């Protein structure tokens, strides 16, 4: 299901799934997505959904609607696009564009993951995830992210769910997603994407292999298959 994650100053404030053919965004309370800020017009923009395809239309807003830094009047959205409405940033996710991409989840500090179907789980006695790094839940461990630098050196983040987010909210966030063929790394938030084996990754998810070195927000890590 196409969805959007709305944030301001790096803090996620809401997540919205697109379920209707037309979804409106604006300051007025009758909009489907309400952003109560004077930089946002009363009826600012509309999302049009046809199947898995989504387009955004600017409704003659005062301050304009931007996609990936460019002003648009109507634009077909792609998975990972970043929209700007006033000071708000909206990250668009549509994993249906890639049939191998499993459903992702975005969590912020304090959010509780929704319940998942019970699976056989191996007990873990390892250290808890470090501050600023979050795992999306608890099923059997198949891989971990091991911290190699900083005050949390030696700690491990278990990759127990479909998606695990790592990083510092508001500074730099990346995700590690489990696919049928293995794990992939993707940039989620921040001006600079993570480094993989010394090279910055691009906009597309990149596969991970045992022993790969990661760097994000000044922290060195290693991907380890267990």
TrEMBL record:
Signal peptide: none annotated. This is FHA domain-containing protein. InterPro entries: Cell_Proc_Reg/RNA_Proc, FHA_dom, SMAD_FHA_dom_sf. It comes from Simplicispira hankyongi. It holds the Pfam family FHA. Residues 23-72 form the FHA domain.
